[in-house]
Amino acid sequence: MSYLASRLAAVKPSASMAASMAAKALRAKGFDVIDLGLGEPDFPTPPHIAEAAHKAALAGETLYTAAAGTPALRAAVAEKFRRENGLDYTADEIVVANGAKQIIFNALMATVNEGDESILPAPYFVSYPEMVKLFGGVPVSPVCGADTGFRLTPEVLGAAITPRTKWLFLNTPGNPSGAVYSKAQLQALGAVLARHPQVLILSDEIYEHILFDGRDFVSFGAACPELRDRTLIVNGVAKAYAMTGWRVGYAAGPAALLKAMSTVQSQSVTSVAAPMQAAALAALTGPQDCISRFREAFERRRDLVVAGVAKIPGLSLPPPEGAFYAYIGCAGLIGKVTPDGRTLANDADVSDYLLNHAHVGSVPGAAYGVSPFFRISTATADEVLTEALSRIAKAVANLKDPT
């Protein structure tokens, strides 16, 4: 008899983490593997941020904090929303957690009942459906393909909503596609949502500062202020400030929802570690020049990868509009035969082939709900990406047509 909870039967481990672990396992055997499975900036955290955590720890800021975060950090988050997004929130409408993923986890734990549906436009972040299922919810994943720029349309949204719909997840810029929603596109979705007052909106804006080709970011909250009382805006310091390992996320939303999320947090992790909150405070209130510097590097790397993929037969890549991923179409490789006689039947096979023959780690598109694609992170050095593309090109060239 299994001692594991039945709810875990439907939940899979993180596909991106699994891909990275597979790459690490191959590297441990002595192979030179380029791991592009996980998405995190390769830049060091800016020194003034690290120094703030150090000073806080030395000053004795090592005790429990309020579950929702320190007053100083919550005030800084509120100021960030005013300064950058044109949104006004009070302290009781702000919560801090151990990364944006925990924000989402707490929100779902506080709201989702058995059988409640969450609309997750595909391609989606790999953890969305698994977290929904963990709480007995039902993921509903309409496919939003390359023909719509990987964006949800009002028509598709309207068709997906049912009386059981509890949440709509939006992610802009999107992981894995890099898709960015304009103000008009968000307002068109908001017009549909206005007709369905039972639907909450989770707007994941963690990549807001990583935009390309001169695009401006528009928060869902700013585009649709009439839906403020049921909108949760999720963000954090991980991507913009190269702080993935510091684990500080934050959110703004209705006070009643935020209070429930804080209750969940108080009975699980208690709070974010105090020195980490001091680091996040320094990130939000200190020099912001790193944001533009990182963004410029990410755009250069995006251009490098787009140009490289265009030279590889069988692969396709519409230029990502933001974030730091390449969601590469591989329909032209399906059915091809590898040098050892294996037929590539799906994108999982393609990722496996690239890992074991090109020694490049990637994540199959099936993990994001749309196939056949594979995702690589472009948040690494130009020379590493150049070498990875060279390896992929050679591996693709070694494929043969079926006889």
Please write out the topology.
Elements: H1 15-28, E1 34-35, H2 47-58, H3 71-85, E2 94-97, H4 100-111, E3 117-119, H5 127-134, E4 138-140, H6 154-160, E5 165-171, H7 183-193, E6 200-204, H8 220-223, E7 231-236, E8 249-252, H9 255-266, H10 274-285, H11 289-310, E9 325-329, H12 347-358, E10 360-361, E11 363-364, E12 373-377, H13 382-397
Parallel strand pairs: 1-10, 3-4, 3-5, 5-6, 6-7
Antiparallel strand pairs: 2-8, 7-8, 9-12, 11-12
Helix pairs in contact: 2-10, 3-10, 4-5, 4-9, 11-13, 12-13
Describe what is shown at a glance:
The protein is an alpha/beta fold. Strands 2-8-7-6-5-3-4 form a 7-stranded mixed sheet, sandwiched between helices. A 3-stranded antiparallel sheet has the order 9-12-11.
Strand content: 5-15%
Flag low-confidence runs. none
Mean pLDDT rating: 96
Work out the helicity level. Answer: 25-40%
CATH-level-4 superfamily name of the largest domain: Type I PLP-dependent aspartate aminotransferase-like (Major domain)
Topology as H/E string? Answer: HEHHEHEHEHEHEHEEHHHEHEEEH
The quaternary structure here is single chain
**Biggest sheet strand line-up:** 2-8-7-6-5-3-4
Count of separate DSSP helical elements = 13
Largest sheet: 7 strands, mixed
Any guess at the CATH architecture of the largest domain?
3-Layer(aba) Sandwich
Number of domains: 2
Q: What characteristic shape results from the CA principal axes?
A: globular
Distance between the termini: 48 Å
CATH class of the largest domain: Alpha Beta
Structural class, please?
alpha/beta
| CA-based gyration radius | 21 Å
The strand count comes to: 12
